[in-house]
Amino acid sequence: MREYLVCDGKYLFEPNIPIRTLYSKEYPYFMTHKHNFIEIAYIAEGEGIHYVADEIFTVSKGDLFFLPTCIPHVFQPRDLTGKRPLHVINCLFKPVLTDLTTNLLLQCRSIELAMLSHFINGTKWLAYRESSNEFIRLLQAMHNQQRKQNSGTELGILLLQLLSLLSQKPQLSYLHPPSKDEYPVHAAVQYMSTHFELPLSVSNVSQMVAISYRHFQRLFKLHTGRSFIQMLQEIRMNFACLLLLERKNDSIQSIAQKVGVFDMKHFYQLFHNHYGMTPAVFRLQHQSQHHAWRISP
Predict the structure, then answer these.
(1) What is the average per-residue pLDDT within 238-261?
(2) Which residues contact 229 (CB under 8 A, 6 or more apart)?
(3) 161 shares its domain with 225
(4) What distance in Å separates the CA atoms of residue 287 and residue 285, rounded to the nearest whole number?
(5) Which residues contact 120 (CB under 8 A, 6 or more apart)?
(6) At residue 155, what are phi and psi to the nearest 5 degrees?
(7) What is the DSSP string of 213-234?
(8) CA dihedral in degrees (290, 123, 87, 100; nearest 10)?
(9) Rg (alpha carbons) of the chain, rounded to whole number
């Protein structure tokens, strides 16, 4: 059974405030992940690709996605070098109506409660596009309220306004899928991000995207600023860090094998080159820290 990264809201929400906004910069590589809360993701800057459920399509500034719990997805910037990043504003909230503050629920009219319940209980992801900065204004207002550290009531009122706006907006009926001819390196990097435990090589990944060995190497370096092996090592070490913290009882050797490295001397060398310490020291330094990511089928 395939494993996913799961983002656990237990470590994201403040006590008694089941709503949170986050600004994030999307990386060229990251595993497809799920979350146990509802996410509204707004493209604030840049262009990229969104892999959601079994679909793939291009995204740009002004696009907004409503993602129910347990929908696997990941964003990938169009520019894989990091020079033109993809920035996303996330509005996260718990999927249980009773988790919202009592004051907010008392202020809700029956029609607002019905709308809120409709979004909370939905199982399909939705896509929208703003026309005149109406999404960004509400999301920035939510972020400003969050910084004031007030109760969740003000945040909840703004969330209701955002959901009300979405309920009146037409959903996007057509999303543009990227072709492998247009984004072959993106397809390769995403494949590497989700299959890094396999014995990947330039040969088998270039075949997957239907590009000759030499041309693939040139394209990969041009579009990512790294060689294929440098990117693969970076992906593997990044996930090794997550495993070290999430699988605290697993041996270092077991974790090395789970990220596709079977030579322990090579694994220790790679890890030290990336993080300046051994895996054991990294685990010890971070053992008391709570993190939102875990691995689950």
Answers:
(1) 93
(2) none
(3) no
(4) 6
(5) 38, 95, 96, 97
(6) -60, -40
(7) HHHHHHHHHHHHSS-HHHHHHH
(8) -60
(9) 21
Beta-sheet pairing, 63-67 with 126-129: antiparallel
Whether residue 157 lies inside any domain: the answer is yes
Domains held by the chain: number: 2
Counts of helices then strands in the chain (DSSP H, E): 11, 11
Say how far apart CA 213 and CA 268 lie, in whole Å: 29
Rounded Cα gap, residues 207 and 64, in angstroms: 34
218-230 pLDDT, tens digit per residue, is 999 999 999 999 9
Half-sphere exposure of 278 (CA within 13 A, CB side): 7
pTM: 0.89
Q: What is the CATH number of the domain that holds 239?
A: 1.10.10.60
Determine the structural domain holding residue 23 and report its residue range.
Answer: 4-168
In this structure, are 138 and 227 located in the same domain? no
Residue 177 lies in a domain: no
